[in-house]
């Protein structure tokens, strides 16, 4: 089991989709081209794999507007004191009309207890997105396109391509679908839906293949903050809860 590439309880609840969902606080991880451009925000996330403390994802993301584009910063930790994977991400996003583009630099450090030591590697990710029609988005990302390896070993960082669409069916309903191909694993299909049940209160659900998971969750969005919860059923491993909190300023 390895850490997730997609962060945020909203994305988890929607089947780990994110390549084509615009203006997410967690886009620095899921598709840097879709970092929000309307405001600054900071978010915090936790995900506990099947209730085991030692295999937990913790992450934070910060998005900041500048005069020449939007900057995104992400920090992510997975594991415990005998094994951990730590990532630091810094990304840049801009747009030309309806076409959005971005790139990020990632440094990943892996620590293994005992005599096994630690090693690090630097990767480059790229993303693009476009609003094809009103409410219809296409997005794609490429992860670790420079094919980085840890230290002097031949152990490489995960490399994947993802492409998908999202469509706002109504002002209250959003649907997303994407395909993800890691070079080491079979093609995965992911899809999810979001529905605003009452003002500012959202319900979400999603599924993935390879691995087979089912997820659902809820979110509440206030003027300056939001909170999202999710739970994922992994077959055959079991249930995993997630929570995130975002603040806009």
List the SSEs and their pairings.
Blueprint lengths: L8 H5 L13 H4 L10 E8 L7 E11 L2 E12 L2 E14 L2 E14 L4 E17 L2 E8 L16 E11 L2 E10 L5 E11 L2 E8 L4 E9 L3 E10 L3 E11 L1
Antiparallel strand pairs: 1-2, 1-14, 2-3, 3-4, 4-5, 5-6, 6-7, 7-8, 8-9, 9-10, 10-11, 11-12, 12-13, 13-14
Would you write up a description of this structure?
This protein is mostly beta strands. A hairpin with a 3-residue loop joins β12 and β13. The chain has a 14-stranded antiparallel beta barrel with strand order 1-2-3-4-5-6-7-8-9-10-11-12-13-14. The radius of gyration is 17 Å and the shape is globular. The protein has helices spanning 9-13, 27-30, and strands spanning 41-48, 56-66, 69-80, 83-96, 99-112, 117-133, 136-143, 160-170, 173-182, 188-198, 201-208, 213-221, 225-234, 238-248.
């Amino acid at each position: 089991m390895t850490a997730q590439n997609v962060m945020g309880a909203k994305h988890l609840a929607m089947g780990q989709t994110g390549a084509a969902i615009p203006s997410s606080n967690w886009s620095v991880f899921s598709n840097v081209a879709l970092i929000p451009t309307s405001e600054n925000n900071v978010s915090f996330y936790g995900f506990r794999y099947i209730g085991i403390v030692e295999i937990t994802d913790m992450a934070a993301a910060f998005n900041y507007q500048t005069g020449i584009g939007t900057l995104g910063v992400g920090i992510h930790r997975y594991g415990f004191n005998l094994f951990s994977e730590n990532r630091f991400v810094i990304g840049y996003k801009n747009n030309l009309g309806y076409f959005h583009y971005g790139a990020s630099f990632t440094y990943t450090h892996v620590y293994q207890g005992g005599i096994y030591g630690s090693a690090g590697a630097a990767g480059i990710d790229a993303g693009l997105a476009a609003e094809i029609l009103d409410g219809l988005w296409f997005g794609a990302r490429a992860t670790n396109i420079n094919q980085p390896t840890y230290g002097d070993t031949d152990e490489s960082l995960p490399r994947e391509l993802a492409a998908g669409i999202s469509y706002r069916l109504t002002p209250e309903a959003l649907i997303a679908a994407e395909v993800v191909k890691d070079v080491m694993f079979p093609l995965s299909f992911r899809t999810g839906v979001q529905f605003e049940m009452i003002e500012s209160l959202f319900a979400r659900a999603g599924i993935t293949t390879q691995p087979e998971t089912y997820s659902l969750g809820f979110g509440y969005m206030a003027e300056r903050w939001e909170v999202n919860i999710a739970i994922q059923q992994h077959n055959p491993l079991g249930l995993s809860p997630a929570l995130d909190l975002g603040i806009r300023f």
